[in-house]
# Entry
Amino acid sequence: MTSNGGAGPGRDAARAATSRTGRSAGSSAFDETGLRNLGDEVGRANGAGRRSRARRGPRRHRRTWWVLGTVGVVIVLFLGGTAGYGWYLNHQIHRFDVRGLIDVPTSGAEAGTENILLVGSTDRCALKVQNAAYGLCSAGVTGVNSDVVMILHLNPSTHAVAILSIPRDLFVPNARTTGANKIDAALYEGPSQLVAAINENLGIPIHHYVVLNFDTFANVVDALGGVKMYFPEPVFDAYSGLQVFTRGCVSLDGLHALQVVRARHLQYKPAGVTTSNPAYWPFENQSDLARIRRDHEFLRVLAGAVSKNGLSDPITDGQLIGSVAPQLTVDKTFSSSDMVNLALDFHGVNAGKAPQLTLPVQIDQFGSYLYKGARYGDVEFPSNVLDNQVIAQFLGIGPNIDTMTGKPLPAPAAVTVSVLNGTGVANQATDTSTALKALGFSVVGLGDSPPVGAQAETVVYYAHKTATDQAAAQLVAKSLSGAVITALGPTVDGAQVTVVTGTQFSVNPPASVATGASSTGGTATGPGTATPSSTPATAPSTAAFQPPTAAVSPLEPWDPRACPA
# Structure
């Protein structure tokens, strides 16, 4: 695939920018105050600046451009921060309504902090030009899922940047308006539903939304002149089309780079295998998680390619804009002034040092998941303690802070809880309520809920989408270990929070018990038996799931990576 923007409107925009500013748009000697004013002007002209961030004072300009984590944000930040292209960008990028986005905080320690949801869509039918390499809409390849779900965290006051990937097979209660599913299935009902699932089930506030399709990705790589990656071993993926049969540094155009980042059925040829027929090569054992690992490495390589090209050449800039801007889709509140301010706030940050995290999950070992009588294929369950730690690290907050608001969580005594036995295991609700009472919660009711299957997550429901109720649910969830997740849904007995118990969880012991002091408190475990505890509770082991995955995984010997210097 070749770039379609070499002589297109992007180059015209570059010429126009030169005539307006008296220098090329890629020049390093632009005036930051003028650029901010331009962004504000564009935002006002289009009425898209309702959530524009507060203007910040000027800082020493550094010409060290960087990549913020995904191709979409490369375009938003790099091109949004180029003064001559503000008007062009604003009129070429598609904007649409995304409900459920959270207002960017304007005060306190979190002021100006943003989480941008970055989605790779599989919607072939939305492509203007069909491509057999992706699968044809006309041939029935009509699924709409989120191949990639990443969140970019930006804190302008600390210049903190982090990326969090969410595995697409994570089973969450609010994936659909009709109920639970894998999180990648939320996009079928639109971006608002995916935002809702992340807000409600993971407690991560989403402020902006950027979606990319196959063409967007390929055109960015082509506009950069391609990228080079080193392949230490031959690799093959029949689904993505990836075929690299020789070791060494390989130049990738947009189409072939897309094959690398989409590969999740990868086969590789280690040193001990002599056949050149990939049908006999071994498969790696973690499909989606392995793809996330490679995608993170690709972003580092892309950052290097962007840095090498410099985005200081108006022709290169024009190619990027002409190729990508018309295809990029963002929420309608993501104004040009937002983009300009983000570019100025973060253009000096080193992308190579930004943490790239993956939400830890437990991978099933039982085959297709049976939930309420329906099969959902291979799934992943949350790992509550690790997930809370990683989300707090990603957001840059402490363990007792509400992730949605940045404020302290309430005291247990202020939270009313009811408990429903969701597995049918004898006394599970009673044992769980006893353990929660030992932590100081006010338990107001017990009951039963029909089991959903042989394996079930423990779900902490809150009935009202208010900061108070969601904070209460977070506090209860953080008092549990194992496959535990929060969800917006009905509660019973007038409680703020209802816990529906699952098959793999435990209630953490009181602090005095965890530190060895005497206490009569108990720990409710997966089987539902309350036992005195003198150590912190851990999730009961089960052969149904693999151990929790790591937040950061090193590259495997066969993974492509940056070419040697």
